[in-house]
Amino acid sequence: MINRYEVYETNQMIEQENLDVRTITLGISLLDCIDSDLERLNEKIYKKITTVARDLVSTGEAIEKEFGIPIVNKRISITPVSLIGGSACRCSEDYVTVAKTLDAAAGNVGVNFIGGYSALVSKYMTRSDEDLIRSIPEALASTERVCSSVNVGSTRTGINMDAVRLCGEIVKATAEATKENDSLGCAKLVVFCNAPDDNPFMAGAFLGVTEGDAVINVGVSGPGVVKHAIEKMRGRNFEKLCETIKKTAFKVTRVGQLVAGEASKRLGVPFGIVDLSLAPTPSVGDSVAEILEEIGLERVGAPGTTAALAMLNDQVKKGGVMASSYVGGLSGAFIPVSEDQGMIDAVKLGALTLEKLEAMTCVCSVGLDMIAIPGKTSAATISGIIADEMAIGMVNQKTTAVRLIPVIGKDVGDTAQFGGLLGYAPIIPVNEFDCSKFVNRQGRIPAPIHSFKN
Amino acid sequence: MKKCVITVVGKDRVGIIAKTCMYLAEANINILDISQTIVDGYFNMMAIVDVTNTDKEIQDVAKELEELGRTIGVSIHCQREEIFEKMHRL
Question: Is B62 within 8 Å of A251 when comparing Cβ atoms?
Fold first, then answer.
């Protein structure tokens, strides 16, 4: 039987160390909504989402109360819209109507984000893909809950540089379209390499074409729990440190597995995966940077940061895989700057630079995330940063992503405010040497040699 | 059998267990195991209960116990046992 200390430990994690289930994401396939008539398409999409996700929020809340564990977000991911809209949408404006439909459906069922306003263009773009990508600035400016992503490369296909160039322009245009809110639109736009099909975390969530009609994916988090556990390991060797991180990741993931199972049973939707990511929030004590500092860095960004992060990421995965029958998504340590108080402080002090963050993305779970850059940064430079990050993903056979916010009207020394879980960020300096001749070359970067595994 | 874990933490006073148990008895919830200590003047109780036969929803039991806790100045939590079981047992 469960003893007092175990109960105390669990409740301590929840109450003092910010252990939570970060998100229950219901994936909904919209493939059966495809129609050649735009109005009918929008109707079908609205009906499907509001029917399948009707009980999502109330079920999440019931589980939350019964188990006494906070479930912070309830969200929806859908089939990439470029695949659904191809037949009905003749231009970018048509796609914007779909974005508005998604926003209304998400509002109706009470979720805070819906992800999947996406295109998968790792090799080439179809006309439909391009129309969707070009509609992103207006779609994100005229909706509240819609999240967008574009997959522009993979280890198997190489990098679609035409899409990378276009995405640089789109990021810039999205920033312009939402400049009244510190270019907030860009916080809902992710450019991926090797995007996973089953990622429950926004803004990059979408339901892959390999998935079924509906699926429940759960994201658990607990940087505060890991930090608290390793506080007891000060001065101990790496073996002890790693062992502690692994055990903690195991415990955290078990909670995710439990919640995922319950949600799946109650909603009558199959369980997909648990994503065991350390996802920070702007509140103190819920920071990945603080874990790295606890491991022994004066500030995150100091020499040793990449090694410490690599170790942390790996131990989180190792602890998590045994705790759940299916682990997927991104699973590791997220390093979004604006959502992590420790990262924000390190940028302010000059300890953490864009270049160091890029190095860290080689070993963390995703990529350059929630980084505010000067609004004057050119589209070509943004494309250059995206291309660098995609190359890291392609060569290392990992998921990488870019979520940069060129904050229009602000420069180094200013701060951008995004609000809520998205936090705030000091503007980070960007290397100003030009890369436009490189970015303006047409075509693709071929797949690397080690992609030929057949 | 469907089990819950009830934890009560707060400043010690007369009647904490009595009031909590009274509520459980009225809700037809059976106590399987109960232990209590005082740490630095703070009351600390844990009970494992069987909620199979109660007519109430567990989330309502949790809410009502929380309210009861507020009236007697302690914090009461009621959670399904699985969350502890999953985390601490293989």
Answer: no
Tell me how far apart the alpha carbons of residues A319 and A247 are, in angstroms, rounded to a whole number: 6
Reported as a single tens digit per residue, the pLDDT across A219-258 is 988 899 999 999 999 999 999 999 999 999 999 999 999 9
CATH code for the structural domain at A1-446: 3.20.70.20
Tell me which DSSP letter residue A423 carries. Answer: -
| Domain residue spans of chain A | 1-446
CA angle A277, A158, A156 (to 5 degrees): 70
Structure tokens at B18: 């009595």
Strands B3-11 and A368-374 turn out to be unpaired
Which pLDDT tens digit goes with each residue over A21-30?
999 999 999 9
**Is B48 in contact with B33 (CB distance < 8 Å)?**
yes
Q: What is the CATH number of the domain that holds B38?
A: 3.30.70.260
Q: Which domain holds residue B42?
A: 3-88
Q: Where are the beta strands (DSSP E) in A121-171?
A: 146-154, 158-160
Closest CB to A66: pick one of B33, B35, B80: B80
- How many domains, in total, are found in chain B? 1
pTM of the model as a whole: 0.92
Question: pLDDT per residue over A136-176, tens digit each?
Answer: 999 999 999 999 999 999 999 999 999 999 999 999 999 99
The alpha-carbon gap from A62 to the nearest alpha carbon of chain B, in Å, equals 7
